[in-house]
Amino acid sequence: MQLKLDALEAHLAKGLKGLYVVYGDEPLLAQEACDRIRAAGRAAGFTDRAVFTVERGFDWSALIGASQSMSLFGDRQLIELRIPTGKPGKEGGEALKTLAASDNPDILLLVTLPRLDSATQKSAWFTALLGAAVALKIDPVERAQLPMWVGQRLAQQGQHVAAGEDGRRALQFIAERVEGNLLAAHQEIQKLGLLYPQGVLSFEQIHDAVLNVARYDVFKLNEAMLTGDVGRLARMLDGLKGEGEAAVLVLWALVEEVRTLLRIKRGVASGKPLATLMRENRVWGPRERLIGPALSRVTDEALEKALTLAARLDRQVKGLSGGTGKRGSEPPPDPWAGMFELAMAVAHGGKPAQASGAPRPRR
Questions:
Q1: In angstroms, how far is CA 59 from the centroid of its own chain?
Q2: Between the CA of residue 335 and those of 77, 310, 312, 317, 342, what are the distances in Å?
Q3: Phi first, then psi: what are they for 41, rounded to 5°?
Q4: What does the pLDDT look like over 108-139, one tens digit per residue?
Q5: Could you give all domains of the chain from N- to C-terminal order, each with its CATH number?
Q6: Any residues with CB less than 8 A from the CB of 291 and at least 6 apart, and which?
Q7: Which pLDDT belongs to residue 321?
């Protein structure tokens, strides 16, 4: 059965099952979930522990043998199976189906996997695991949820921010500093617990203590564009540049969003339902609720100009000299500044960046 992460404690309090599967791409939350299962296992008498990590040439028969035997001293055993690639192969798939079908009360099995694509989630071995296991899918904490997550973590250590606007500002400040790096966010929150007593944290205390440990995902740029969050967009581009992200990849991500918006906008103008257009353009998840406001904010003309700019930026980031536009319409000397202008076509409806008062990325 599928179990939500926030329901794990209540589930474990009622008693352990024999098989747990933890999968997803957020290391901190996956690690914490596994720690809770291990602790519950120790409390239930599973004091012997064996860890198997699937690598090239892995001996699946050794795993099957361990799951069917008692430990040397007769203790109940926790067996952890880690599959870092999420691809056990044919032999591994058969072994996992065997494990799913086994029922040994002296064995507690914990399987950890990364985020799985849709095809893998439909595979016979994974379906067999889900049919026998308690499965926890670990989803990342989205940027919009991050301030609330930070507030909850502070509360766990007896701290909280001030009520009202000052508190919201403090949580937003922390979120901006730790976005995309939940492990570091956890460390920064723990640091606040060491530096300051329980109770209310002021913005000044947080500002002085929390380091900028954000790590930005190029594929999250579209969220900042669609919401019109120009400040976040500038920070993300600045951070991606500082981390050495390839300009070609960043440009591709921006252009794909511009093209998608233009296709949907033209489709709506021709009378097609928005829901149909979003399906055709593979728009789902958080983007679904962001597309509508973005469409009403940006014009066809702004999107077309953005694509023209993108063509020139493409030549620039690939080191090709010579512009194709009219005099005075060439992109800025720094392609990252040009990509900021390109993103602004969506984030601010094509208006000049200066109109928003938002910072441009550092040169």
A1: 33
A2: 57, 10, 10, 6, 10
A3: -65, -45
A4: 999 999 999 989 999 999 999 999 999 999 99
A5: 5-138 (3.40.50.300), 143-209 (1.10.8.60), 218-356 (1.20.272.10)
A6: 226, 261, 264, 274, 278, 283
A7: 57
